[in-house]
Amino acid sequence: MFSSGCALNPPPPLPQSPPTFPNHWSAPHQREAVGGDWFLPGQHDLLQRLILEGLTNNPQLQSKLSEARAAVQQAVTVGAVALPRLSSFLGVQRNDNGSSITSKGTLSLDFLWEVDLFDKLDDQTRAAVLAAEISFSDYEHARLQLAASISKAWFTLLEFREQIQLISERKVNLQKNLALIEDSYHLGLKQPLDLYLARSDLAATEARSEQSRQEFRQGVLELEQLLGRYPHGTLQTESALPRKFLPIPPGIPADVLSNRPDIKTAGLALEAANLTTRAAWKNRFPSFSLTGSLGTSSNTLKDLLSSKTAAWSLLAGMVVPVIDGGRLKALQEQQTQTAHTKSSLYRHTVILAFTEVENLLNDAEHLRLRHDHLEQAVHHAQLAEELALDQYYQGLVHYVTVLESQRRTFDARNSLLTIAGERVRNRIDLLAALGAFPVPFHD
Length: 443
Fold this sequence. Notes:
Layout: H1 2-7, H2 45-57, H3 59-80, E1 85-96, E2 101-115, H4 120-186, H5 192-226, H6 253-259, H7 261-282, E3 287-298, H8 301-304, E4 311-319, H9 327-393, H10 399-433
Antiparallel strand pairs: 1-2, 2-3, 3-4
Helix pairs in contact: 2-4, 3-4, 4-5, 4-7, 4-10, 7-9, 9-10
């Protein structure tokens, strides 16, 4: 009666309680659904192949998959405890007392079953199954993060490559300017100051070119590492960095709860903690078990297999915790606090996800505006450079004015290239934060 009465009042499970959120994101964004390729226009086939290669060969991702498969076997192990167990034993013993040698054979069949009257073992099994689901959810999250990391590394390489081309163009212009100034200097038409400034600017640009090449190779090695390759530094990039982006429809905040693997993981962890708490509470109740044995022993094999010499036994037992110094109650309280921890972590994970999306949406809008302003800056800087060169050749301005105008043009174009790379990485991070990054399937 005591056990049945307690079983009617189990500890209540802690619910998944995400914070209150609005119907729409607060950051500015495109609310209307748009058609077409709103991920990255002209998505590269090579990038898709690289992502598949990374999903197949990346060692860290492979370890995540192995952990998930091991968690499945652990769930099978836990679930087997609730099933009846049957084992057999066959043994032969020989004794030599000095005057004679005797042999004795033993054959037995043993049975053990813990009767799960209060579903304690069922709760433990369900918690183990959830633990396996958590491992696979972690694996899916790792796949998403790896695909996003490979994509960002790839487009960063495209940015580096275009930066090298941009610096090369500037170096060619400076070399042409230097050749003209040297000719004019030898004719006595230019001052030594112009010559020294031109040489200095060319040398500084060559140093910057070497730095860009160094960064490009480092980026190649990092990408090859993500792919699970040996870092030869030989990966080739021939595509162009995207410049145009269609608006992205981010949906509503509620979508994030169902799309993001890390939120799913946090929810499963809370659910498993609730089941573990129930199991710890049920450990304070009596446990029932059935044990049985069927066996025989004989000095001859013929009698060993004979049913006439067989003996059997069956025992039903109950174990009731009476005095344990509060150990079982403390274990239950420990699991209860663990569930409260998982509940707080779930809420924290959701808040972090919302914050991440809001920041990325806000960043996307500011990056778009910065891109538009820099396009205007490049246009006006190029006009100023052309005018400065024309006036310099007419003797109206000093060469310092030309250098300053060229520097402004280069800086504006370089900043525009950097913003283009940041917009690509922002788009990838935003899709990952929304749980909408297109991770390709692989066997």
